[in-house]
Amino acid sequence: SAEGTSKPFSTRADGYGRGEGCGIVLLKPLRQAVKDCNKIWGVICKTAVNQDGRSVTPITKPSVSQQE
């Protein structure tokens, strides 16, 4: 963007603004969080993984061609 800011929902959008960021999620067993009187923002009830099964890449690296 010439202005250096992103405007994803604006008719005046003219590119993107570069930036860096970081996020972190700390997980703790629910029983321990309750015992420690932590604020509980959410509970993970289920998980899943995705792997196309057609490549030798690790399960943590899905195949780009199979995702299209």
From TrEMBL:
SUPFAM superfamilies: Thiolase-like (SSF53901). Keywords: Transferase. The gene is Nfu_g_1_011517. Residues 1-68 form the Ketosynthase family 3 (KS3) domain. This is Ketosynthase family 3 (KS3) domain-containing protein. The keyword Transferase applies. One of its GO terms (molecular function) is acyltransferase activity. It holds the Pfam family ketoacyl-synt.
